[in-house]
Amino acid sequence: MTTKIMHKSSLVLLAVVLAVTLTLLAVPAVAVQAKSYHAMISAGQYHIVGLKSDGTVIASGYNAGGQCNVSSWTDITQVSAGGYHTAGLKSDGTVVTTSTFYGGDISSWTGITRVSAGGSCTVGLKADGTVIASGYNTYGQCDVSSWTGITQVSAGGNHTVGLKSDGTVVAVGDNNYGQCNVSSWTGCTQVSAGTQITVGLRSDGTVLIVGDTSQGANNAGSWTGITQVAAGFNNYGQCNVSSWTGITQVAAGEYHTAGLKSDNTVILVEITTMVRAMSVPGPVSPR
């Protein structure tokens, strides 16, 4: 979710959700005629994106790459905020992005059920469990064409992670800090790729971590009862979330952490006002 020029990232943000959980797990494409949308948030490098329950999208924050230019989007079922671009999944299985320069050319994509915006690439999960990617590929982060049996994807700074249907995990791309060393993982139900870290949530509520843990992310290895994970940064107070309550989903950016509350408002901890608080109005549609 960050670019190749970012600072090192090694925060792991996790939330124990006691109410209805809206996670960053795979969100299936919704048939056009159903018109059923689910409110969610996604945090990028310097911006945050919100999906409303009517299928429209709002964004706030740094907009140098046009990553917040989403006001015209409609019929969106999932959003993903990357480094300098934002990707949206439409109910017909096609994808829109705010930038082909940062996010690659996705104009021909169809049959997509999940999308993830990375530092400078976009990754899509297809209904048949295969994966497609477009954008910057110097580190091999787009080399996912051979993947099969995938149920969730997560694009990081310069690496991409995929969760397989058997609970194992695959990864490609930059491995300078060991963030792709996931071949031994089993029993996973969710994965999240940060700049130089990868986090896996296991079915028993425990957490696996590889990559740059120099800022204490490895401490999450002792956590239990976790229902969702998000990988981000932690040098400007982004971990100051212990007082949050009523949270249904969390998202970690490089310089901010966002939580979606049960009333569809959003709470933030951030470095500056570059990312501002927003609400995601309209009741969350029941699954």
What would you note in describing this structure?
The chain has 287 residues and is mostly beta strands. The chain has one domain: 7 Propeller (Methylamine Dehydrogenase, Chain H). Helices cover 1% and strands 37% of the residues. It has one helix and 20 strands. Strands 2-3-4 form a three-stranded antiparallel β-sheet, with no helix packed on it. A hairpin with a 3-residue loop joins β18 and β19. The longest helix has 4 residues. The radius of gyration is 17 Å and the shape is globular.
Q: What labels would you give this structure?
A:
three-stranded antiparallel sheet; 1 helix; disordered C terminus; mainly beta; single chain; Methylamine Dehydrogenase, Chain H; globular; 287 residues; 37% strand
SSE layout and pairing:
Elements: E1 11-15, E2 40-43, E3 47-51, E4 57-61, E5 76-81, E6 86-90, E7 95-97, H1 100-103, E8 112-117, E9 121-126, E10 131-135, E11 150-155, E12 159-164, E13 169-173, E14 188-193, E15 197-202, E16 207-211, E17 228-232, E18 247-252, E19 256-261, E20 266-270
Antiparallel strand pairs: 1-17, 2-3, 3-4, 5-6, 6-7, 8-9, 9-10, 11-12, 12-13, 14-15, 15-16, 18-19, 19-20
In a nutshell, what does this entry contain?
By secondary structure, the chain is mainly beta. It has one helix at residues 100-103, and strands at residues 11-15, 40-43, 47-51, 57-61, 76-81, 86-90, 95-97, 112-117, 121-126, 131-135, 150-155, 159-164, 169-173, 188-193, 197-202, 207-211, 228-232, 247-252, 256-261, 266-270.
